[in-house]
Amino acid sequence: MAGENNLKERIHRGELIFGVGASLDFGRSQLEDILAQGDYSFVYVDSQHSAFSEKELVTFCSHAQAIGIPVQLRIPHTRHTYLIGRFLDFGPTGILVPEVKSMSEVDEAIEFFYYPQFGRRSWGGAVRLNIDAFSAPADPEEIDRLAYADWWNSNGYLAIQMESVEAVVNAANLAKPGIDLLAFGPNDLLFNIESLTNSPFTTVDECIGHVLEQTKDSTVQVSLGVATAEQRDKYIEMGVKVLQVTPGM
User: Fold this and answer.
1) What is the rounded CA–CA span in Å between residue 48 and residue 30?
2) How many domains does the chain contain in total?
């Protein structure tokens, strides 16, 4: 059930994709107003630095699914990767894991994002993305488990956030099968650069350039949030394919 509008496939093809941020407490009309301000392919919500409740996430994702826009959720902390399956059961299409440095963190994220046999996400959740499409006509309570798992593994997308020199240096290894996006957290990355006496990089742009070079032959793309049209255009010129922009951009 993958196709040309599958965001995961569009990422892998290297299409230019824009997303826009929203608050979890937005109602449907507020979400529609934000989405009407540009050509956006996903909406981004944050639970790392913003107030968060699971019920709000369920409601927000139900509005987004009714409108037909994928939701990307940044989870609260790197150590919460074991809860990725739980967050996904509330309706997001994409997950962003912050402050990833190590292969073990990447492996755990993949493990709990995908269903078997690629991962080990647990089965369950009545409000999972698109779950109703896999109900048996004779019994809506019966779900085609294998078909849904295959659909999810081909449609859900997983991003890790690079916020350290260590992650940037190891980008090629972190971009393993199952990872779709390498996203940047510029401010925490700058803190890390400033803390090192012999950093191989002195600017965020140098880090982005290095990661773009490391992934140039990969289907994994680089993602970045921008605040101005000038930043947007600069990073597109550098080769960044997925940008989180402010409303109206």
Assistant:
1) 22
2) 1
